[in-house]
Each structure stands twice: as structure tokens, then as C-alpha cells.
Amino acid sequence: MLDHPLGLAPGKIIAVHLNYRSRAAERGRTPAVPSYFLKPSSSLSWSGRPVVRPHGCDLLAFEGEIALVIGERAHRVPVERALEHVAGYTAANDFGVYDFKHADLGSNLRAKGQDGYTPVGPAVLTDVDPAKLRLRTYVNGQLVQDAGTDELLFGFDLLIADLSRLMTLEPGDLILTGTPTGSTVVRPGDVVEVELEGAGRLRNEIVADPGELAAYGVQPKVSEETRAAAYGTAHSSASDSGRPPHPLDEQTVTALRSVSTATLSSQLRKRGIDHHFIEGVRPARPDLRMVGVARTLRYLPLREDVFAEIGGGMNAQKRTVEEIRPGEILVIEARGEHGAGTIGDILALRALRRGAAGVITDGGLRDSPSFSGLDLPVYFGAPHAAVLGRRHVPMDSQVPVACGGVLVMPGDVLVGDAEGVVVIPPGLAAEVARDAARQEDEERFIYERVNEGASIDGLYPMNKAWRETYESRRDAR
Predict the structure, then answer these.
(1) Does the keyword Transmembrane apply (predicted)?
(2) Sheet of 36-39, strand order
(3) Which of 56, 107, 242, 406 matches a 20 to 30 Å C-alpha distance to 172?
């Protein structure tokens, strides 16, 4: 291990756009090949240096990363020789102000090229297996990112070989290798720490620039899409995923809370979506309604050697709980296996404290009696006292999952009541909510007329005369 990350300023700082499976799932796309952008060497900084948020900006986001330090000149090197050109590995933080994302047509120059926006250190690891490195990021002491290099889409050797096909990598150059899920917005006063296991923690405090931004040149500008991307909302880019960045506005949430899952099921069937009801789960608290967007977690069948390798510590289950954001619902694929618990009261409480809107598992629920006093909607397949390691390996998160026989995508809209849970594609959420509320208003009218003694003939469904009566009363209201 070296005592200092770099002896001189790098000639180039190259950053990878998407390179962790969890981040790709969050963004709603998985690239076939790596893509890159450049950061100026003047953005280089160190542990302990403040990171300045410009005046008038709101969306400063961190991205904990592993940086490769090039030690030997690399030009057209093959993949199998690429790592010979690496001097070592260090922690890095790829800061960016999303308020300037609109400015430079994808180059990220003003968003991520500002002075001090590439802190690295505090040390470089030299004698390590790059396939077994672990990256963690903390905000104000709270773990927000935790990923191993086994989750990379493109290995370090491939990145070096790919880049060196068309450009020469020089000693001192840095390659930032991508960030896992968990990146989000930080504010003045927050402290962000990035830890490359074995190399210490890179620590930077966020401060506000007291001076106003000069009036000439590009000014900060924020859209709903950039705001969603900055906060790390699942499938946040509409252009990437075809899904809106914010499927649940306040009006939609209010409407979804007011209607039954039976009505929502009718509306989805009218739109050709028949497979939308999560089967075989029951509510721990039938009195609670649930509305939110999916954050997914996948369990695979137990294999003892795999569980020994990835099932302990901050495994995929615990990391996913620590990544939950307000309004998200944890959806666990347990293959309908009821022979072990998939989540217990402590992790469910942690999810609640992070703002979770609910939990759904088609497997077992551990500590099930405790959930009657937990103010969190939870749906489960069966109670079971055993820990998940009896039947499951927690594998990965923010991937498509099958829960109760239904496909659930990260970012899908979920609504639950005492009857069960329905899955709504985000792009349909607003219109389904609107039409479901209208349907229930009509059905209340029909119910009241039947209660008064009216025949269902011509009333259910309404003929022209009854519809005119209904619309007249509705307009009067």
C-alpha cells in the first residue's frame, strides 16, 4: 500500500458511465459496451478537502467509485495483459451537479468537471486481487452504497484494453470505474465518505459557495427528469426506459389510496394487462393501505458454498434495505418458498425508518407476531421462524423479479389493501387511478340504488336513463 494516492496530477481522468448491475437496473438500461466521459485534472482533490456546491444549485450528488491508477504506458494492450499497466486501486468520488446536466450535451464538463469534484485516496492498494475488492459509501456515517467488484458489468482489464485501442494511457492517469446503486443528492453540512476496503476512507464535507454565480454563461436549470436522476429514482430517465421519472404525483397517490384493488384489477384488464395480482400473499395489517413504487430483491435457492461467500455480512438483503428511499416498496422474490423467513422485524423496521411504503414477499415472514404493531404494510406468503439461510441465497437487487406469480420491474407502481396487491405499469398509473376513482363513484351510485330497492336490470351496468340520472347527480355534487 502506498502512503499517498498520486505523486503528480494525472494527464487524464476517465470515468465510466454505467458499470454496476445495480446502477444499470436503477437507470433502466444495461449497456452492451462501456462508455466514458472525461474529467479535467483540475477536478482532482483529496480526503479532507471540502466539495463546493455552486450558488443557485440544489442537486449535488455523490458517486462512490474505485479508481484505477495507471502505472505503465498502455497502448493497444490485450485484455489478458491489461492489469499489468495498473499501479494500484484507490477510492474516488465522482461528484456532479445535476443542475448543469443540460449544459454540455453529455460531456458532463460543467456538471462534473468543477474544481475539487474528483477527490481520491487516502491510499492506493497495490497487492490485491481486483476481482475481490469491496466499495462502500457513507453519508453522515450511514452506509448508502456497498458493492463488490463481482457486480461489475465490465472488468477493469476490459476497460483498460478498450480505452487503449484508441488512446494512449499514461502513468498517473485515472480511470473511475463506475458507481453502484445508492448515489443520491447531498447538501451543505453533509459528510460523504468512500471506503475501498483496506485503503481507509476518503472523506469530504459539502459546503455552499457563498459567492453568487456570474450572470453570463449557462445557468443552473432543473427538470423533473434530472431531479429524478440525481436522486437515483429507479428507471429515472424517461428516454432510457420509456417510463416517466415520477409516476406517482400527489393526485395519483390520493386516487390510488381511495380505490380498491378489485377496481384497479378491472381497469388493468380493460387495458389488456391480466397478470397483475400478486397471488398467495396475505397482509400482516389488513387495516393499512399501501401505495408506492417497487424496489426489488431476488433470492435464489440455497447452495451452501455460495451462501458462505455472499450470504453473510452486508449481503444483498441488507444492502437493499439500506438503499430504500421514501415511497418505495421492497418486493422480494422468494420463489413461493415458505420454508424459511425472508425478512424479519428488525430489517422491516429499518426499511420503515428509511421511508419505505411497504414490504411484499412471496416467502416466509420471520418474527411475524411483531408485525401487528409495526406501522408498515407487509404482505407475506406464510409465517416461518427460520432464517433465510435455510432455503435462500440473497442474490441481487433492482432487477426484474417474479413475486406471487407476477413480474415486477423496479419502479413499478404497487397498491395493496386487505384483499391483496396489484402491480401497475408506471406509465399507466395516472390514468388507471383516475378511471378507477370514476368507476367506484359510479358503483357507489349503483349500490345506493340497489339498497333503495331498485332492480339491477338496466342499472348494473347502467343504461342510458340511469346514466343520465347518475350524471345529473354527479354534476350537482
Answers:
(1) no
(2) 36-39, 13-16, 174-176, 64-70, 86-93, 118-120, 44-46
(3) 107
